[in-house]
Amino acid sequence: MKLPLVTRPLSRVNVEQLADQFSMSDLTLPFWGYRKKMPMHRIVRLEGEGNYTLFHFADGSQLIVSLTLKKMESRLSPKVFVRPHKKNIINLLYLEGIHPDRQQMSVSLVNGDRIDVSRRKASLFIKQVQGFQQELLTINSLAVA
């Protein structure tokens, strides 16, 4: 399957501008005795570890929260965040490339992470990426006009 997806990664400035376009608000995360707001657009990916979720941010930092990946998925923007595998949710703003293979499709992110795409979710994942890129083209054409 030939994938004309992912032309080039977005710059940090582009990511912040697009975050406004996609209405990506801050995400409130629970910690011991308090809550903390985190900018949703700075999340590169989320990784499920049992009843915990490990956040990977654009600046390289990581944060673990005592909520399941499923609970976190419902709090994220569905236009930008997709779940290519049961253990990961990725932010399409940080998608670098898609690597189709006969055995296992995978994606690479701008932070160097490479994530497998489950075979059962591969076609849905491709549709989500194509929809996201159509949305980007629409936003870019409106910005130019």
From TrEMBL:
It holds the Pfam family LytTR. Coiled coil: none annotated. Residues 37-122 form the HTH LytTR-type domain. InterPro entries: LytR-like, LytTR_DNA-bd_dom. It comes from the Bacteria. This is LytR/AlgR family response regulator transcription factor. The lineage of its organism: Bacteria, Pseudomonadati, Bacteroidota, Cytophagia, Cytophagales.
